[in-house]
């Protein structure tokens, strides 16, 4: 017990002494320089392994390492060399120190499509009075063009999001998402185009002018898993008979051991090694998290 207390004390001391920069200062440090940024994660597994971290100065992307265990609303310090990925500034390969959960997620900055630029990269933003230039249903990872007050902008979805299969709105909507950029291989450094809004899920789309506020995924929805411990098939209960859109399972080290896009509220774990696992379930309304043991 004494050893555990000492280790926890050293860990907390490491957090307190870690010298971190603001997101804007990290970007200004220049490609190749090692940076550390403390902020709040504004996305979770619905965008894959990448995490966008925002503080009071702006936002920055983190990629690689064990970032897949970071949830939306986690306060973290991410560290690593600064790089440019097709003009998107990101810390990669990144490692992180967990500070706290359920931190206050920054309110999205309301901008127009014509204002969307470098200053919004890595930040949560909102564009109002948008119409989609296509109909049908949302597919997996895909790009969509929207028009807002006569100006076009790009929206990108991810196959891990619960937006897959949802009908594309035909009326005017407001969109919340993460500001990002992808200029393409031929553009070179310094490109000032290719800005795209990353949609995190269906709750980021609301009818224009709807007085319902910002509907965020809750990171506190506890997943009821049974049987637990389990040997073959693990089942889970959801609220309101929600439809499952995807499942991610990681081991205690944060390594992804299972990922599937499915509608069934169960997974077969017969081939899993014995041990403890974390499970994240995305539905059309929420993100759930739980734990189970394979025996």
Q: What does it look like?
A:
The protein has 295 residues and is mainly beta. It is built from two helices and 21 strands. Strand 9 and strand 10 form a beta hairpin. It is globular.
Could you give the count of β-strands? 21
The appropriate CATH architecture of the largest domain is Beta Barrel
| Helical residues, percent | under 10%
- The CATH superfamily name of the largest domain is Bacterial OB-fold
Look at the structure and give the CATH class of the largest domain.
Answer: Mainly Beta
Features:
mainly beta, globular, 3 domains, Immunoglobulin-like, five-stranded mixed beta barrel, five-stranded mixed barrel, OB fold (Dihydrolipoamide Acetyltransferase, E2P), 295 residues, disordered N terminus, single chain
Quick gist of this model?
This protein is mostly beta strands and 295 residues long. Helices cover 7% and strands 42% of the residues.
